[in-house]
Amino acid sequence: MTIFKTIHAAITAAVEDLQKSGELTLKSVPNFVVEPPREAGHGDLATNAAMMLAKTAGKPPRAIAEILKPKLEKIPDIASVEIADPGFINLRLKNDVWLNELKEILKSGIAYGNSTVGKKEKVNVEFVSANPTGPMHAGHVRGAVIGDTLCNLMAKGGYTVTREYYFNDGGAQVDVLARTAHLRYRETLGETIAEIPEGLYPGEYMKDVGQALAHSFGKKLLGKLESEWMQPVRQFAVEYMMAMIREDLALIGIKHDVFTNEREIVEHGLLDKVFKILEDKDLVYTGILPPPKGKEMEDWEPVPLTLFRSSKFGDSSDRPLKKRDGTWAYVMPDIAYHYDKIQRGFTLLINVWGKDHGAYKDRIAPAVTVFSEGKARLVIVFNSIVKLFKNGEPVKLSKRSGNLITLREMVEQVGAGAVRFYMLTRTPDSELDFDFAKVVEQTRDNPVFYVQYAHARCSSIMRHAAELFPAAELAPEALAAADAHAIDSEDELGLIKFLANWPRVVEAAAVAQEPHRIAFYLMELAAVFHSLWHKGNDDASLRFIVPGDKNLTRARLVLIKSVQTVIASGLSVMGCEPVEEMRNDKPAA
User: Fold this and answer.
1) Is 318 helix (H, G, I), strand (E, B) or coil?
2) 570 burial level (CB within 10 Å; 0-12, 13-18, 19+)
3) What are phi and psi of 79, to 5 degrees?
4) 284 vs 328: CA distance, rounded Å
5) Which of 176, 351, 481, 548 is most enclosed, with most CB atoms within 10 A?
C-alpha cells in the first residue's frame, strides 16, 4: 500500500470514529483525496476531506477540519497537522515514513509502483492498424509507441491487456499493392520497367516483393490475365507486407498479441449478425437524413436509407448502415469488429487513432453501448502528426518508402529507445517536432539524454562505491536493510518524496489512459536528481560518497539505488532500456 493510500485509510478510520462517537453525523463517508500539496512549503500531503464532508455533515469545512485535527495528530506516521482556509488539511509526515519507502523501493525493484487499481479488467488496445501496403513509417510510429506504452502502463496498473492490430486486406489499396508487386515481379524476370505508373506504389521496398514473388512462383504468373494472377499475388503480397510490418515494429520492441483483418470479419458473416441484432432491438429503420450541416451539397438528394437509431445513444444523428445501392456502409465492418471484441470478453476497448479520425468515435460508441448493454466502454486516444527535421530543416523523402521516412530509418539514425521516449514527450493530441540531431544531442535540453544521464550517473556512483564496499553490501537487498537515518537534509528528503509519488503517478496515468505522464514524471525526477548532484559539486559534504564517513555514504547509496530503480521502472513502462554509461558514440536511449 502506498503512503497516500495508507494515510487515506487512516483519515477514513478517524472520520468513522468521529461518526461513532457522535461528533459528526454522516450518511456516508464521501470520496476525498490525499495528494501532494500544490506548494511544497505547505507540507508533505494535503487532503480535502473536510471540504467533502461539509455538505453531508451540515458544518462548515473549517469546523470539520478542527474536529478532525486532534484525531489526525494521533496517527503514528503524522508529525504535524495544519489547517488552511477554507478547510484544507496539510500534513507533515515523520522522516521514518519516507526512509521506509526507500526500503520498499529496493525490495520491489522495477516492480515498485505495480498496482491493482485495474482489478484485472480485460482491456483491448488496438493500435497501429495500418493497411499492409508498405513499411512502417514516421506517420505510424507515434501511435505505435503510444499504444504499446499504454499497454505496458495498464498492465502495471493491474489490468489484463491484449494488444491488437486491425487491418483491411481486401480493399482497393491492396489491389494496388498486388498490381505493383506483379509489375516488380515482371521486372525481376527481365522485363524493362521505365517508370512506375501513377497510382502504384513507387517505393524501393516493392522490388523485394517482386523478387520474393519470382522466387516463389517462378514464371508461372507471366502472360496471364489480371483476373488469373490477382488473387495469389494479393495474398502473397499481404503476407509479405505483414511479415515486414511485424519486423519493423519489433525494432522498437512492439509485438501484438492478435491480428484481425476486415476481410475475415466480413467473410464470417458478422455484418449480417450485428445488423440482425440491431433489427431485433428495433434500432433499424428506413428514413431520410437531413443534408450535412454547414456544407452546401448541390447534388444532395433526399434518398431513403437504412438507418441505425444511434442518436438514442449519444450520437449527433442516426447513421446509415447501408448505402443507397443497398451495400454495406463504410462504418459497418468497424461496428462488427467492435462487436467481436465485446464477444471476446473485453469491457474496456481502447483505440489509438490519428487525430483526423476525431468524429469517428460517435459512430462506433453507440453500437458498443448496445452490444455490451452498457457494460463496455470505448476510449479513443487521438495522436497528432509528427514533423521530421534534421538540424532544423524538414525531412520528408525516403528512398525505401518512396515518400516518408521509415521506422527502420529512424531507428538506424537515433536508436529504438530514443524514438520511443521522444514520442511521449508531448501530449498525444499535440503536434510533435522530431529533430534527428536534437534527439541524440547530449544536453539537458534533450529529455531523452537528461533522463538516461540520471540513470547513468546513479550507475557511476554505484561503481565508485564498489571501491569502498564489498559487492554484497551494495546489493539491493542489503541496501534495503541498511540504516538510512543519516539522510536528513531537506533536498534529500524532497527527492525521496518525489520517488514515493511514482505509484500514484502509475495509477493516475493508467486510469486516465495517459502514457505521456510517465515521460513527464521521469523528466521531472531527473531534474530533481541532477539538481542534488550539482549541489555536491559545490559542497563536498553533500556528495553521495563521503570519504571517511561510511554510514552517511551507505545511507546515501540507499537513496541513489532507489533513484536508479524508479527511473528503470519508468523506462520499462516506456519500453526503453536504461543506460549504465553515457558515451558520445552511443544513442542516448
Assistant:
1) coil
2) buried
3) -90, -35
4) 14
5) 351
The answer to whether residues 339 and 269 touch, using CB atoms and an 8 Å cutoff, is no
Whether the Cβ atoms of residue 544 and residue 461 lie closer than 8 Å to each other:
yes
pLDDT tens readout for residues 554-581: 999 999 999 999 999 999 999 999 999 9
Q: Are the beta carbons of 32 and 52 closer than 8 angstroms?
A: yes
Here the cell at position 26 is 454522516
Where do we find the cell 501484438? 256
The β-bridge partners of 432 are 386
Weakest-pLDDT range from 184-198, 367-381, 395-409: 395-409
Per-residue cell: 41: 512549503
- Return the closest-CA partner of residue 495 out of 506, 484, 509: 484
| Residue ranges with strand state E in 41-152 | 45-47, 78-84, 88-93, 122-126
* Residue 577 DSSP symbol: P
**Residue bearing cell 541532477:** 530
**Rounded distance between C-alpha atoms, residue 428 and residue 146, angstroms:** 8
Spacing of C-alpha 514 from chain mean position: 6
Counting every residue, how long is the chain? Answer: 589
User: Bridge partners of 388?
Assistant: 434
Quick one: pLDDT band at residue 357, thresholds 50, 70, 90?
confident
Residue 80: strand, helix, or coil? strand
| Separation CA 181–CA 201 (nearest Å) | 9
Quote the pTM value: 0.94
Exposure of 434 by Cβ count < 10 A (0-12 exposed, 13-18 middle, 19+ buried)? buried
What band does 296 get if pLDDT is binned at 50, 70 and 90?
low
- The number of C-alpha atoms within 13 Å of 406 and in the hemisphere containing its C-beta is 20
User: Which three cell numbers mark 205?
Assistant: 521496398
Q: How far apart are CA 265 and CA 335, in angstroms?
A: 10
Distance of CA 44 to the CA centre of its chain: 29
Buried b (16+ CB within 10 A) or exposed e, 500-521: bbbbbbbbbbbeebbbbbbbbb
Report which of 154, 516, 113 is spatially closest to residue 346, judged by C-alpha positions: 154
What does the alpha-carbon distance between residue 331 and residue 429 come to, in Å, rounded to a whole number?
24
What is the pairing mode between strands 88-93 and 160-167? unpaired
Q: Which three cell numbers stand for residue 479?
A: 541496501
